Amino acid sequence: MTAAEREIMIGEAAQKLEELFDVLRIDHRNDHNTRDTPRRVAKMYVEEILQGRYTAPPAITEFDNVQAYDQLLVTGPIELRSTCAHHLLPIYGAAYIGILPAAEGKIIGLSKYDRIVEHFASRLQIQEELVKQIGQYIMDVTKPRGLAVRICAVHMCKTQRGVRASRRSRMVNTYYWGEIAASAELKSEFLQECAALVLNAE
Fold it and tell me: Is residue 30 helix, strand or coil?
């Protein structure tokens, strides 16, 4: 979507949020705290929370694999912020990505993995699908020999409502592609590296 199209969407969404506030008996016309809230919320959804729906995935910067590096490399924790598709509440945590590059192939700039995670997280999500969307995009664009994506996250739809679980309660899921999917040894190495990155981040 163009910037002009997104601005139109923000205006239309703000009108609908005003209607919702009216139904919920929230005074957005006179209360100084909520007077501009419908437009602020609409802008937040279009330009931040759901940005990944309306913008293109990040461009990938590739570099020659001059030294023919072909061993597993793991990056993380990558800050993850998303929104639950079921209750519109935040999901937050960390992603870890393991790449098995091809010796004759390319490698990509390290920060691009963070950008890819941010892009696919910026939409209504469930974690089971998010982990696959991140990985499949990397596989399609960079074509490594193998890939692993792991997410560990808190779901506020569980901590703020329903059972009101402890904020320490998390969901972890991992998905594998290529040679990593076929190798128990590579899977184990990836998980060990993820554990080491968690310890070093604390």
Answer: coil
